[in-house]
Design a protein that fits this description.
By secondary structure, the chain is an all-beta fold. It has no helices and ten strands. The mean pLDDT is 88.
């Protein structure tokens, strides 16, 4: 495998280039059984109990100042579900909690998270 080293990138047809730092360094999609459906730069998914998961990265981030985003879907009732950051936020892992609109921790039908930042 070859490594291409660049500072900026531009898609064919675009007029502006962008700095490659801060692009999505990791993402994960998993189900209510904590089975990963698909991912990028995810070494493992730790089950910490109902609605509680830690995403462990294959390649660590350069620092803890990366940005996260998450989304979830409720399993049965069709109610809203939310992903929130928990206590662990290190260069090698982020802990997430999924909860319903009442604030109760749930194992959502589908959970997705993305992390943007520079890799170490």
């Amino acid at each position: 495998m070859s490594t291409l080293t660049v500072s900026n990138i531009k898609k064919a047809g675009e007029t502006a280039s962008r700095d490659i730092s801060g692009i999505c360094g990791s993402w994960c999609n998993w189900d209510n059984n904590n089975s990963v459906n698909d991912s990028l730069n995810v070494a493992s998914l730790l089950d910490g109990g109902t609605g509680d998961n830690t995403v462990n990265y294959s390649s660590s981030f350069a620092n803890g100042s990366y940005a996260n985003g998450g989304a979830a879907r409720e399993f049965s009732s069709g109610s809203e579900a939310y992903m929130r950051l928990s206590t662990t936020h290190t260069t090698s892992a982020t802990r997430w909690v999924c909860e319903n609109e009442s604030g109760t921790d749930i194992d959502g039908q589908m959970r997705t998270v993305s992390t943007h930042g520079d890799l170490a």
